[in-house]
Amino acid sequence: MSDTITLHRPDDLHLHLRDGAILEAVAAASADFARAIIMPNLVPPVTTADTIAAYRTRIEAALPKGAAFEPLMTLYLTDDTTPETIDAIDGVAIAAKLYPAHATTNSASGVNDIEALTPVLERMAERGILLLVHGEVTDHEVDIFDREAVFLERVLDPLRRRVPSLKVVLEHISSKTGIDYVKSADSGLCGTITAHHLVIDRNDLLVGGIHPYNYCLPIVKRARDREALVEAATNGDTRFFFGSDSAPHTDPKKLGPCGAAGCFTAPVSLPILAHVFEEAGALQHLDPFLSRHGAAFYGIAPAEATITLERCEPYTLPPIPTPDGPIAVFDPGFALTWRVAGA
Ligand code: NCD
Ligand code: ZN
User: What is the mean pLDDT of residues 314-334?
Assistant: First the structure.
């Protein structure tokens, strides 16, 4: 049993860094990563080449001095996005994000008519810009625990048939159905998996009281779904890679009568993953999950530099203060016994 793990500097291929004071407060927590795909769901959303470039500049300014972290920027798709928008963002953004309108935090400007977006998606395919998908339907009659499965059948499968050459990432897969769907695709489809979906299920959200820090979207599901996610992440399958979906909210937003969705995992995602992969007897698959599978699908050079995780005494991390209240760090429900060496 080794007490250190050396990894290539990892990629977080789904990250919310927010803006303003929260960006300032959380940016350092991702600085061990080589790169991250930055989500564009600001208010207002990041919908043009100019706003993407300006947001990137604000992120770079918020990072600790000397941090070797590259933000990989994305476009927020709306009903008003045109093929010309795609031409304009080529070279500025690597991917575009599809939020079905009202599916999750800050998605009110998301897409209502996904079929009408086909010319935009075709232009993305031509230019090699990836489509990142929040895979949940929003129909009121669909149960929240079924929204991912219904999305695959009603929305994603037809979309992929309409634009077969488009590269698609099904983000933050939360169900066995989602895992099986990615596995069934011939090519052009991969999925990100978060750290929190690997370690909590809906009992951790709802048994013994409501646990608002475990509330995120897609909502955590049954133990068997979590087990399917662990199997997919830890078995070396190149179609799955890490996207933390670290989504900071202040306590006043998380703990109110209508608590916000999102788990702030950035400071603990690597220790959680080391724990999960070690428990699965699959530490040899951790490095490719974190730095190889995603880079290959995105067509970006894999990181060469390394970081080391070291085993340590159990610890917990305090909330991060902001002018709008503290941001609690996600608690996986077990003791953290790995940390980044030299951090
Ligand atoms: C994310 C957020 O807070 O921006 N929330 C979440 O529960 N994951 C949005 C998202 O990725 O769905
Ligand atoms: Zn997200």
Answer: 98
- Span between the terminal Cα atoms of the chain, in Å: 22
The pLDDT value recorded for residue 2 is 86
Q: Of all helices (H) and strands (E), which one includes residue 145?
A: none
Taking the C-alpha atoms of residue 185 and residue 207, their distance in angstroms, rounded to an integer, is 36
CATH number of 256's domain: 3.20.20.140
For residue 141, give every residue at least 6 positions away whose Cβ sits within 8 Å of its Cβ, in sequence order, or none: none
Whether 343 shows a pLDDT value over 80: the answer reads no
- Ligand 1 touching residue 132 (CB < 6 A): no
Minimum-distance ligand 1 atom for the alpha carbon of 262: 7
User: Left, alpha or beta for 210 (phi > 0: left; psi -120 to 50: alpha)?
Assistant: beta
Quick one: pLDDT at residue 135?
A: 98
- How many other C-beta atoms are found inside a 10 Å radius of the C-beta of residue 65? 4
State the residue range of the domain holding 227: 4-340
Number of domain units in the chain: 1
**What is d(CA 104, CA 278) in angstroms, rounded to the nearest whole number?**
32
Q: How far apart are CA 79 and CA 113, in angstroms?
A: 7
245 lines ligand 1 (CB under 6 A): yes
Active-site residue flag, 87: no
CA distance 10 to 244: 11
pLDDT tens-digit map of 219-235: 999 999 999 999 999 99
- Separation of alpha carbons 337 and 277, rounded Å: 13
Residues near 239 by beta carbon (within 8 Å), at least 6 away in sequence: 182, 183, 185, 189, 190, 191, 293
